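Subject: design request, 311 residues
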C-alpha cells in the first residue's frame, strides 16, 4: 500500500495523517505545537509527529512516498520557505529543506488555508465542484480558492488572503499597517474584541474566548447576539467582494468560529443578498466544512499526491 503523510501546522496543534490515494486516513498523530520552542524545536516536533502517524498506520516507513506540510503564511511554496507567520514568530524559515533532511522524504509546502480548501474540495463538502472558495474562521481568517481541483496561488504564491479584505476603512488598525480588515471582525480574536468593546464579559468560570460569547448569544443574550450579527454582516461584506471577483460555485465555511452556524450565517446571507448581483448568487452553494480537524492534514496529503503527479 502506497501512502503520503499530510501535516497541518497550527499555532496550537500539529496534526499529521497518513493518507492513501482516495483520501482515507490510515493513521494519525496530534500534539501541541509548543511555539515557544522556536522554529528548530517545532520542526523537530513535526518530524516526531510524522513518524508517530506512520507508526499509528502500521505501515512501513518506505510506503510513504512524500510529505505535505500546511503552515500559516505568507510563504513561498516554490522555495519551501515560510516568509513570516506571527502565530509562530517565524521569519524566512526553510521548512522544506529542514524536514527533507530530517525525514529523508520529498516534502512540499503550502499555506494552511489553501490546504484546508484543497482537502474539502477533494473529499469533503466541495467534492465535485469546479470552483470552490473556502473561508477558515479561526484565530485569524484565511482563504483558499480551488479551481479544477488545484490551488489558485496567484503570481507569486501569496493569493487568497481573504482575511485582509478591507470591510471598514475606518476600522481598527492591524499590526500589519492596514485598517478595518475582515479578520478583525469575524476571527476568534475579532469576536472577543467586539464583545469586549460591547461591555460583555464571559460567565463566571468561562474563558475569555469566542466560544464563551457564542454560547451567550445562543442562549439569547442581546449584546452577544448583536456581536455575532455585526460579525456576520462584516463577513457578508467581505464575501460580497470575493464573490464578485471570483464567481465561485461553492463557498465553504470552516474553523471554530464557523461553529456559530446561523448566528453568523443569517446576517451574512442578508448582507450578501443586499450587496451581490443576482447573477453571482444564482446557483451559488454555501456549505459548512465536513472534515473537522483532519481538513488541513488531508489537504496537505492531497498536495503531496499532486506533487507525485497522481490524479
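Subject: RE: design request

Done. Sequence follows.
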Amino acid at each position: 500500500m502506497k501512502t503520503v503523510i499530510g501535516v497541518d501546522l497550527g499555532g496550537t496543534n500539529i496534526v499529521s495523517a497518513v493518507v492513501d490515494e482516495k483520501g482515507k486516513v490510515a493513521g494519525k498523530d496530534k500534539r501541541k505545537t509548543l511555539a515557544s520552542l522556536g522554529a528548530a524545536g517545532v520542526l523537530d516536533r513535526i518530524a516526531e509527529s510524522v513518524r508517530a502517524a506512520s507508526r499509528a498506520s502500521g505501515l512501513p516507513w518506505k510506503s510513504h512516498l512524500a510529505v505535505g506540510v500546511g503552515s500559516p503564511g505568507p510563504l513561498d511554496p516554490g522555495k519551501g520557505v515560510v516568509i513570516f507567520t506571527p502565530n509562530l514568530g517565524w521569519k524566512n524559515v526553510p521548512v522544506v529543506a529542514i524536514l527533507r533532511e530530517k525525514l529523508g522524504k520529498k516534502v512540499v509546502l503550502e499555506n494552511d488555508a489553501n490546504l484546508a480548501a484543497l482537502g474539502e474540495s477533494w473529499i469533503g463538502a466541495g467534492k465535485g465542484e469546479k470552483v470552490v472558495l473556502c473561508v477558515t474562521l479561526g484565530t485569524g481568517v484565511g482563504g483558499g480558492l480551488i479551481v479544477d481541483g488545484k490551488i489558485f496561488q496567484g503570481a507569486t504564491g501569496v493569493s487568497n488572503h481573504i482575511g485582509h479584505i478591507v470591510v471598514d476603512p475606518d476600522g481598527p488598525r492591524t499590526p500589519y499597517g492596514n485598517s478595518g480588515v475582515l479578520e478583525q471582525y469575524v476571527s476568534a480574536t475579532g469576536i472577543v474584541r467586539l464583545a469586549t468593546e460591547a461591555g460583555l464579559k464571559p460567565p463566571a468560570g468561562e474563558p475569555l474566548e469566542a466560544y464563551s460569547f457564542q454560547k451567550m448569544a445562543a442562549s439569547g443574550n442581546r449584546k452577544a447576539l448583536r456581536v455575532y450579527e455585526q460579525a456576520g454582516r462584516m463577513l457578508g461584506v467581505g464575501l460580497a467582494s470575493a464573490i464578485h471577483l471570483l464567481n465561485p460555485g461553492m463557498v465553504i465555511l470552516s474553523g471554530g468560529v464557523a461553529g456559530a452556524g446561523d448566528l453568523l450565517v443569517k446576517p451574512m446571507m442578508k448582507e450578501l443578498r443586499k450587496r451581490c448581483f443576482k447573477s453571482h448568487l444564482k446557483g451559488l452553494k454555501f456549505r459548512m466544512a465536513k472534515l473537522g480537524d483532519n481538513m488541513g492534514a488531508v489537504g496537505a496529503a492531497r498536495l503531496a499526491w499532486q506533487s507525485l503527479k497522481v490524479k
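The mean pLDDT is 94.
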